[in-house]
């Protein structure tokens, strides 16, 4: 059984803060500073360039990838780390399109994260072969899967509302029409159980700085189903993805299996900061995490709706239909969120009017939820948000 009270003590949570923004950036595990001090002093400082061999830096992307793969129902050797999520989206989508050269439609939804849509638009324009991106409403995606679609590219959990797509059902329909799937797990990995193999996913990508608590800018991952690995085209053919990088051949030959999805020099320090967070996940039962996440979400919704009628629920009411976040709409949501942050309740804002709250059982409990709603009620009922100070937009919202 997962001991959530013990796990909460594994994170550094600033005094006086209720942190409801782990869906944007997870808090720091308390083991990170000591671990990073070891990496800096004993590996980088002492080993210097030898660290690629003696400290295992070179194999770190595959080793850490396998650890994340275990959280995603992925077989060993099907996940590798490196680069940013945008790079990994580009790799996965380009590889999938190359496997369906006769088809020209990329299907997503109009609630997908803009970066994913930008990348799809960019690839379609770069190819110059008449590809088009279609973005129906999320609830209309299933009906839009037809024989002319090349790739279905979706984020499983909507970044604004937390609405959850049914990965298995949509993947099955996609395959029935000869469509390949690319799943973005940015708001799924570490938030809910994922089983890529059971769902039949072809490609998947995700970041590690949200629910996986790897730190700001921590590296992304890419999954390629085992049956596709040897035929997956490499759109970004960097030297670390070469079959023999240190032969320094002038001609690119893709590496074997998932290794071909490596690009450049791996971010050793970022991967090293992620590893203590993954140690915590060794003690988590994902089904228990999901149950507790839904319970916290239901409590939060009940309390907010009972005390803050100005806020309108934007997330699905059914806990099984959303990820590990709850969002409310409010016309002056940006200002209200700034007022909350000033009073120690940290969530975030997404355009046009979404106040977003992450409910992560690893470090949030029922008492945190109730105390957070006390503050939300005070801010809303007393219009504490209604000042020029809180309405002035910052660079990062």
UniProtKB/TrEMBL annotation:
**At what positions is N6-(pyridoxal phosphate)lysine found?**
210
Q: How does it assemble?
A: Homodimer.
Pathway assignment = Cofactor biosynthesis; NAD(+) biosynthesis; quinolinate from L-kynurenine: step 2/3; Amino-acid degradation; L-kynurenine degradation; L-alanine and anthranilate from L-kynurenine: step 1/1
Q: Which SUPFAM superfamilies match?
A: PLP-dependent transferases
Keywords for the protein's UniProt record, in alphabetical order: Hydrolase, Pyridine nucleotide biosynthesis, Pyridoxal phosphate
Q: Which cofactor does it need?
A: pyridoxal 5'-phosphate
State a GO cellular component annotated for this protein: cytoplasm
Enzyme class, first EC level, given as a word: hydrolase
What InterPro entries does its record include? Kynureninase, PyrdxlP-dep_Trfase, PyrdxlP-dep_Trfase_major, PyrdxlP-dep_Trfase_small
Q: Which domain of life is it from?
A: Bacteria
GO annotation (BP), single: NAD+ biosynthetic process
Matching PANTHER family: KYNURENINASE
Designated name of the protein? Kynureninase
Kindly state which reaction or reactions the protein catalyses: 3-hydroxy-L-kynurenine + H2O = 3-hydroxyanthranilate + L-alanine + H(+); L-kynurenine + H2O = anthranilate + L-alanine + H(+)
Q: Is Hydrolase a UniProt keyword of this protein?
A: yes
Q: Which GO terms describe its molecular function?
A: kynureninase activity; pyridoxal phosphate binding
Q: Does the keyword Hydrolase apply?
A: yes
Residue sites binding pyridoxal 5'-phosphate per the record: 85-86, 113-116, 155, 184, 187, 209, 239, 265
EC number per UniProt = 3.7.1.3
Stated role: Catalyzes the cleavage of L-kynurenine (L-Kyn) and L-3-hydroxykynurenine (L-3OHKyn) into anthranilic acid (AA) and 3-hydroxyanthranilic acid (3-OHAA), respectively.
The entry assigns this protein to a family as follows: Belongs to the kynureninase family.
Q: Which Pfam families match?
A: KYNU_C (PF22580)
What is the primary gene name for this protein? kynU
């Amino acid at each position: 059984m997962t001991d959530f009270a013990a796990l909460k003590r594994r994170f550094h949570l600033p005094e006086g803060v209720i942190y409801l923004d782990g869906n944007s950036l997870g808090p720091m595990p308390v083991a990170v500073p000591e671990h990073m001090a070891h990496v800096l002093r004993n590996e980088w400082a002492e080993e210097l360039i030898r660290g690629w061999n003696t400290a295992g830096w070179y194999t770190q992307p595959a080793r850490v990838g396998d650890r994340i793969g275990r959280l995603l129902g992925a077989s060993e050797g099907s996940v590798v780390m490196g680069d940013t999520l945008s790079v990994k989206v580009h790799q996965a989508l380009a590889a999938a399109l190359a496997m369906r050269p006769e088809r020209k439609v990329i299907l997503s939804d109009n609630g997908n994260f803009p970066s994913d849509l930008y990348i799809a638009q960019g690839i379609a324009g770069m190819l110059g072969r008449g590809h088009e991106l279609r973005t129906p409403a999320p609830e209309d995606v299933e009906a839009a899967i037809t024989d002319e679609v090349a790739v279905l590219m979706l984020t499983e959990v909507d970044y604004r509302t937390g609405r959850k797509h049914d990965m298995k059902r949509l993947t099955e329909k996609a395959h029935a029409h000869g469509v390949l799937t690319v799943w973005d797990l940015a708001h799924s990995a570490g938030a809910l159980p994922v089983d890529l193999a059971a769902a039949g996913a072809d490609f998947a990508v995700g970041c590690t700085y949200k629910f996986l608590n790897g730190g700001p800018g921590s590296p992304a991952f890419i999954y390629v189903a085992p049956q596709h690995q040897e035929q997956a085209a490499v759109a970004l053919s960097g030297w670390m993805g070469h079959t023999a990088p240190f032969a320094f051949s002038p001609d690119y030959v893709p590496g074997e299996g998932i290794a071909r999805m490596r690009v450049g020099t791996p971010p050793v320090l970022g991967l090293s900061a992620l590893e203590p967070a993954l140690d915590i996940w060794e003690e988590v039962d994902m089904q228990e995490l999901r149950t507790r996440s839904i319970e916290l979400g239901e409590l939060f919704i009940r309390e907010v709706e009972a005390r803050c009628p100005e806020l309108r629920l934007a997330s699905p009411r059914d806990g099984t239909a959303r990820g590990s976040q709850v969002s409310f709409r409010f016309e002056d949501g940006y200002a209200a969120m700034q007022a909350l942050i000033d009073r120690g309740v940290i969530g975030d804002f997404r355009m046009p009017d979404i106040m977003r709250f992450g409910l992560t059982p690893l470090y949030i409990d029922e008492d945190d939820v109730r105390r957070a709603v006390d503050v939300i009620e005070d801010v809303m009922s007393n219009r504490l948000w209604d000042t020029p100070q809180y309405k002035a937009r910052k660079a990062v919202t």
